[in-house]
Design brief:
about 130 residues, mainly beta, Jelly Rolls, five-stranded antiparallel sheet, four-stranded antiparallel sheet, globular
C-alpha cells in the first residue's frame, strides 16, 4: 500500500473495502510502518463521497503495538474532516505506537458489492 506524506509529519492513505464486504464484519487496516514509534497528535478522515453514498454507520477501533485499545467503535463521522460542510474538523489525540495492522473498522447497515476506496485516513505526527 502506498502512503502519501502530504506535509512534514502528516501521512494519509486510502482505505479500501474488498469486494463482497458483509455489513458488521471487521475489516483490518493495512500496516502503516510510518506510524511505528511515533506519537500521533491528531487524526482526520476524508470520505470519498461518491463511493460512500449508500454506506451506513462506520466505526473505527484503533490499537497500539501492545494491543491495547486506544479507540473502540469510534464513529468515523466524528473524524470526518468536512462533515458535509466547509468547516475543517480535526480531532486531537495523544497516542503512541499505533498498530494499524491490528486495528479495524466496521460498517453497519450496508454491504459493498465491489472493491472501492471509501475514505482516506490522515495521521498528524508530532
Amino acid at each position: 500500500m502506498a502512503y502519501t506524506r502530504i506535509y512534514e509529519n502528516i501521512y494519509t492513505f486510502p482505505v479500501i473495502v474488498p469486494a463482497n464486504y458483509v455489513a458488521g464484519s471487521k475489516r483490518f487496516f493495512d500496516p502503516c510502518p510510518e506510524l511505528a514509534n511515533k506519537k500521533v497528535v491528531a487524526i482526520s478522515l476524508s470520505y470519498d463521497t461518491i463511493t460512500t453514498a449508500g454506506i451506513g454507520a462506520l466505526y473505527i477501533t484503533i490499537k497500539d503495538n501492545k494491543r491495547n485499545i486506544l479507540l473502540q467503535n469510534y464513529p468515523a463521522q466524528d473524524l470526518d474532516d468536512s462533515n458535509g460542510t466547509t468547516n475543517f474538523r480535526l480531532r486531537l489525540f495523544n497516542y503512541s505506537d499505533i498498530d494499524l495492522n491490528n486495528s479495524y473498522f466496521i460498517i453497519q447497515g450496508a454491504s459493498i458489492l465491489g472493491q472501492s476506496t471509501i475514505f482516506n485516513f490522515n495521521f498528524y505526527l508530532q
